[in-house]
Model the fold of this input.
Amino acid sequence: YDDRDGFIWMDGELKPWRDANVHILTHAMHYASSVFEGQRAYNGKIFKLTEHSERLRKSAEILGMELPWSVEEINAACEQVLKANDLTDAYVRPVAWRGSEQMGVAAQGAKPHMAIAAWKWGKYFDAEKAEKGIRLDIAPYRRPAPHTAPVHAKAAGLYMICTMSKHHAEARGYDDAMMLDWEGRVAEATGANAFFVREGKLYTPIADIFLNGITRRTVIDLAKKRDIEVIEKRIWPEELATFEEMFLTGSAAEVTFVSEAGPWNFTPGNMSRQLRQDYDDLVNGRLVNS
Ligand code: PMP
Done:
């Protein structure tokens, strides 16, 4: 990803893609003092940009970092990056981290930095596979308990177990992993939230110990607009046998059908298709924004 043309916004200026570097003693490299975002632009407009910029600032604040850029400045920088790279449909990746001004666990003197890159990123999951539904393994690691980590921050440190779980799943021939929470309930995939359908109702785990995704909230709104009952509840794996459909939601994953999660099977049906269509219409400006 580093050896290509283009521009990356870094601490207030656009830098040539290959020169957007940090020093090896960057605190974030050693101690994961880094937070990030991921959003998509459709037809030149970044979907829910302000929500993403707000979450970036919030994640940083949870880690004790105050970003010197306002939500409006972050929004403007994201848009500037799209333009500079001549992109209309793209994935946008803001990241903020503690720099190399201080080394050691304590790093109050390490300054907050921010960078924003954008690139063309097609479907997160292979489109052909996703049509039938992707296959999820059950992750060997569980989401951390809320008193063991800042679980609502989109913080790099929380993704170590996601990468390990996704690698583990892919090595076993699966597309992604479903992660359980610390008590063994269904939580989310490694980079997307989970939804289930049973007898015309939509179910999703309560987002109390993992990221309450912007796409998750959008899909809940879209379902409510269609008078679909949405039930947020604790879901134990055994209950998966009772659901007919499953899908994932995320800014990168959008709405992705699931055909298997461990020993449980699902078939994409009308509700999953309808909500995927509604989401597609909304992000492309064919539905009034909620
Ligand atoms: N959970 C995890 C672990 C994620 O990485 C993401 C993607 N940011 C999500 C859920 C979905 O969040 P969003 O819809 O805001 O992209």
